[in-house]
Amino acid sequence: MQARPTVNFVVNFVKSVSRNVCIGSVLAMAVSASAQAVEWKGWNIHKPDYPNTVALDKFAELLDERSNGEITLKLFHSGVLGNQPDAIEQVRIGGLAVGNFNLGPIGPIAPEANVVSLPFIFKDIGHMHRALDGEAGAQISAGMAKKGLVALAWYDAGARSFYNSKKPVTSPADIEGMKVRVMSNDLYSGMISAMGGNPSPMAFAEVFQSLKTGVVDGAENNWPSYESTGHFEVAGFYSNSQHLIIPECVCINADIFNELSAEDQEMVTAAARESADLQRELWEQREISSRDKVVAAGVQFNEIPDKSEFQAAMQPVYDKYLAANPDLVPLVELIQNTD
Q1: Worst-scoring range by mean pLDDT, 36-40, 263-267, 333-337?
Q2: What pLDDT score was predicted for residue 13?
Q3: 111 vs 135: CA distance, rounded Å
Q4: Which domains are seen in the chain, by residue range?
Q5: In terms of pTM, does the model score above 0.90?
């Protein structure tokens, strides 16, 4: 006759099963947690010591810390993943999760973003911050989201002014006949054409060599970009026109953002905005040091105290843009009327 299991055998068997079930449960939980953790890839064109780069690294640090390691952001600086237009498209389709972009190249994609590219729409840097951190910025972000880009925060990019290898620019007439590199946006091309110049859209990485070889006579950008790229070495005249004050965004793919919980969306947005506070502080410091550096190197710098002649020359640009985009007139007026 077959022996019946003893009480001890049964107790030990139950303990063994329970232990294995617990171990299995722990492993399953670990696998589940691992499956939920994500690593985002991020694009940045700037070099390691640039204010945007430092701020983006801070953003990544905050994401890791506040998500308890569930969201990590691996950043690729110095444009190693390609140029800006390509990176914008990659974030839109989800090939990249995050990017720090100038709104200039986003304008042709999202009409609301294009209003910041209207010359002289902002009175100064402070006006730009107040507009973008308020209702105008919310409307621009909503327009961008429809095209696959959620703007989490706005970075400072300073005021863009003209620089060239020929002469100081003191009036629109000085631009006449000049070949000027611009970002890829019809508004920028129209701006140069309105002053009688020849706009030359090209990738940022090509500008130094183009200035050096005379493919273009000049370009336009802010102090840190003019200095950090070495453009001042081949274009020694910098004229403080401040014709464009174009912010930059920390953008995330809309689908990735929408898949986050409401709590995580709030956390990610707060981290990006905290990084923007740092970026703006560092930017202000960098503008001063960049200007001092290039002036010390011999750049011929001139102020343009009265910009009314330049502003008047831009009226055809405004007329054409608003005629083609009448629904954006309220947004333009909202920005202009922001205190």
Answers
A1: 36-40
A2: 42
A3: 16
A4: 38-156+246-288 (3.40.190.170), 160-245+300-336 (3.40.190.170)
A5: no
Partners of 303 in the beta sheet? Answer: 240
**Nearest CA among 179, 181, 224 for reference residue 204:** 181
Amino acid identity of residue 149, one-letter, is L
Query: DSSP secondary-structure letter at 137?
Result: H
State how far Cα 297 lies from the chain centre: 29
Give residue 12's pLDDT band: very low, low, confident or very high (50, 70, 90): low
Across 134-153, b (16+ Cβ under 10 Å) vs e yields eebbebbbebbbeebbbbbb
CB-CB neighbours of 268 under 10 Å: 26
Q: Give me the pLDDT at residue 118, please.
A: 96
pLDDT at 34: 40
Q: Are 96 and 41 in contact (CB under 8 A)?
A: yes
Cβ–Cβ < 8 Å for 163, 219 = yes
Q: In three state form, how does the secondary structure of 179-209 look?
A: EEEECCCHHHHHHHHHCCCEEEECCHHHHHH
> pLDDT tens across 214-241, in order?
999 999 999 999 999 999 999 999 999 9
- Residues paired with 254 in a beta bridge: none
